[in-house]
Hints:
By secondary structure, this protein is mainly alpha-helical.
Amino acid sequence: xxxxxxxxxxxxxxxxxxxxxxxxxxxxxxxxxxxxxxxxxxxxxxxxxxxxxxxxxxxxxxxxxxxxxxxxxxxxxxxxxxxxxxxxxxxxxxxxxxxxxxxxxxxxxxxxxxxxxxxxxxxxxxxxxxxxxxxxxxxxxxxxxxxxxxxxxxxxxxxxxxxxxxxxxxxxxxxxxxxxxxxxxxxxxxxxxxxxxxxxxxxxxxxxxxxxxxxxxxxxxxxxxxxxxxxxxxxxxxxxxxxxxxxxxxxxxxxxxxxxxxxxxxx
Length: 267
């Protein structure tokens, strides 16, 4: 839910300001205040989004690597507290940036570097756990676990412990499925923000004048696209929402065919 709010903020605020700024530049009416607000809103909202994804990565890390701590220590309240404190820090830095721009630039760079380092660590550990689990068991799949779970449920004596093991495996698979969705989100971040890091960071001196303006516009556009891609991924990963979408699409197609046939009936 917090990531959805962050994506809404990027979509409604940062994207809108960015489009208005580009339109004013095309029209020849360059507004310095609008550029100032657009620049700061993009950095702050991007940092908010990255910190929110970091909270999700923390939850996925404990859910897969430390399931016991995940059930007892990693609560919704603690994660929400982390998100609120992160957003509050971004707000404070935003206020300070109107007096000095350097703290905002440093803050944005630190958040991005920390996000990359922590993300590599989290999904590297998850990948190692998955590979080791597959090596230990060739039947580590949801179908095989459910089959063995139903078989064990008919036994006595040792059945409770066996059933608990199966439940633990099913919980592990569910956590892996959620981790896979979060990994797709991370891939979107890498794809959308890498051009800006390369062109405007490592290759900054290679672009000057008109070429630099084009690089900034396209890199910013791609970065803003990330929030939309996040929404699409979360939507498509939900089986119920996919079914509802296909159902609505079929209804629309049926109505369109009926509308196309109705003039022929009248004639």
